[in-house]
Specification:
Number of strands: 2
Strand order of the largest sheet: 1-2
Number of helices: 4
EC number: 2.7.1.-
Strand content: 15-25%
Enzyme class: transferase
Largest sheet: 2 strands, parallel
Pfam families: Hexokinase_2 (PF03727)
Keywords: ATP-binding, Glycolysis, Kinase, Nucleotide-binding, Transferase
Shape: flat
Protein name: Phosphotransferase
Helix content: 55-70%
Order of helices and strands: HEHHEH
Radius of gyration: 13 Å
Distance between the termini: 25 Å
Length: 77
């Protein structure tokens, strides 16, 4: 995840990137520490990116992707 968001930042030629990523799955939702470990790992590995993880209540990967796209679109308006 860190490599992907940092690549997006580089491709857009930004000094800093703020981005929302939709997530889905039992590991993210139910593991007592996974979401925090993911956030911290991305923060350390992609320090020029501010990543917000948005859990999907849809129950599918498509739902997570849709949420991320809608949030991004709203941020650009």
């Amino acid at each position: 995840m860190a490599a992907v968001v940092d690549k997006i930042r580089e491709d857009r030629r930004l000094d800093r990137l703020s981005i929302t990523v939709g997530v889905d799955g039992a590991l993210y939702k139910l593991h007592p520490h996974f979401s925090q470990v993911l956030k911290e790992t991305v923060r350390v590995m992609a320090p020029q990116c501010d990543v917000t993880f948005l859990p999907s209540e849809e129950g599918s990967g498509k739902g997570a992707a849709l949420i991320a796209a809608v949030v991004r679109h709203r941020q650009e308006i």
